[in-house]
Design brief:
47% of the residues lie in helices and 20% in strands. The protein is of the alpha/beta class. Helix 9 (246-268) packs antiparallel against helix 10 (276-309). The longest helix has 34 residues, at 276-309. The two termini are 24 Å apart. The chain binds uridine-5'-diphosphate and magnesium ion.
């Protein structure tokens, strides 16, 4: 990594940017700052300084005020970006990517589910020359069985559909060097996006560290079923065009079915295959396939439409300790 400056002992210092997106985290954000700060300061042993880049994703519960207070009290280490409204976790991470100034960046959640004791291991990996460090969950005590099964199924599916590989247990806890930051910042600015997936697929020297996800310190998870569905759809759109080709297969299948019915009719010589039910069932089935395919095309067109509008990924209302 590049060097940053020299401390009083004349030793070259590097800066670790800890990027944290926070949406309505008033109950736990201060504790996060304290605990993570403690682990970050311990890195001075390894000649690392640190900065927090907090992205306040349009919080309405007092998180903004707490962050401003932290920024005022610790202007050297705390930088804050306030969004004009809630733009979502992805956009918040992009803002962190845009504003972080460190030599290495670590992306973390504000609820201490990503244990900060891993900062030391991350710094060690940077020192060994790794540029992309994915943190892989070994256990997630907070996730229920249903979430675990759907999550495993989803990753199996997307890895079948897509040419890239997505690590099933990777999280939004990862670390990258400045070089990778530059690439992601400049070349991956799609409106519909999946940063964690891009991080795993930009190449560079990669490694993984296993960690055990902790329970949330306070507040509750913001991920509803609806958000998870949107997230799953977005991921598929980001990484695969295969669903668009489904129409061809559906067409072939319908043609084949038609052929069978034709042959059956000719062989039995009864005229049409008997029954009103057959016709209705076949019609419903065909329309189901047709609308499904039209729906998929619609989803992709929506992505193109978003891209064309070229609206900003986020709007910054205010910044603290940042230029
Ligand atoms: N978050 C955000 N914007 C949102 C929703 C969540 O910045 O619209 C942040 C949230 O404050 C937390 C992180 O994203 O730091 C992960 O969210 P959460 O803990 O709710 O998700 P989970 O860990 O349950 O998957
Ligand atoms: Mg969480």
């Amino acid at each position: 990594m590049q060097s940053y400056g020299a401390n009083t002992r004349g030793i070259v210092l590097k800066v670790l940017s800890i990027v944290v997106s926070a949406y309505n985290e008033a109950a736990g954000i201060e504790k996060f700052y304290e605990v993570t700060g403690r682990y970050a300061r311990a890195l001075r042993e390894k000649n690392y300084e640190y900065e927090f880049v907090f992205v306040d994703d349009g919080s309405q519960d007092g998180t903004s005020e707490i962050l401003d207070r932290l920024a005022e009290g610790d202007s050297e280490h705390v930088r804050v970006i306030h969004f004009s409204r809630n733009f979502g976790h992805e956009s918040a991470m992009i803002a962190g990517l845009d504003y972080a100034t460190g030599d290495g960046l670590v992306f973390m959640d504000a609820d201490l589910q990503h244990p900060p004791e891993n900062l030391e291991k991350i710094a060690d990996c940077f020192e060994e020359g790794y540029q992309v460090i994915s943190m892989v969950r070994t256990a997630n005590k907070t996730a229920g069985t249903v979430k675990k099964i759907t999550s495993a199924g989803f990753y199996w599916f997307i890895n079948k559909l897509s040419e890239v590989h997505l690590e099933p247990n990777a999280s939004d806890f990862f670390a990258i060097t400045k070089d990778v930051q530059t690439v992601l910042k400049n070349s991956y600015r799609e409106k519909v996006r999946f940063l964690r997936g891009y991080v795993q697929n930009v190449g560079f020297k990669k490694t993984t560290i296993e960690y055990e996800a902790a329970p949330r310190i306070a507040g509750k998870s913001h991920y509803s079923i609806k958000k998870l569905y949107k997230f799953a759809m977005n991921t598929i759109m980001c990484f695969s065009n295969v669903p668009l080709k489904l129409g061809i297969w559906a067409g072939l299948f319908s043609g084949f079915l038609g052929l069978i019915v034709l042959i059956y009719t000719l062989i039995t010589r009864k005229g049409a295959p008997s029954g009103y039910a057959t016709i209705v069932v076949l019609l419903c089935f065909m329309f189901m396939i047709l609308f499904f395919v039209v729906g998929i095309i619609g989803e992709y067109i929506a992505v193109i439409f978003d891209e064309m509008k070229d609206r900003p990924l986020y709007i910054v209302a205010d910044k603290k300790n940042l230029h």
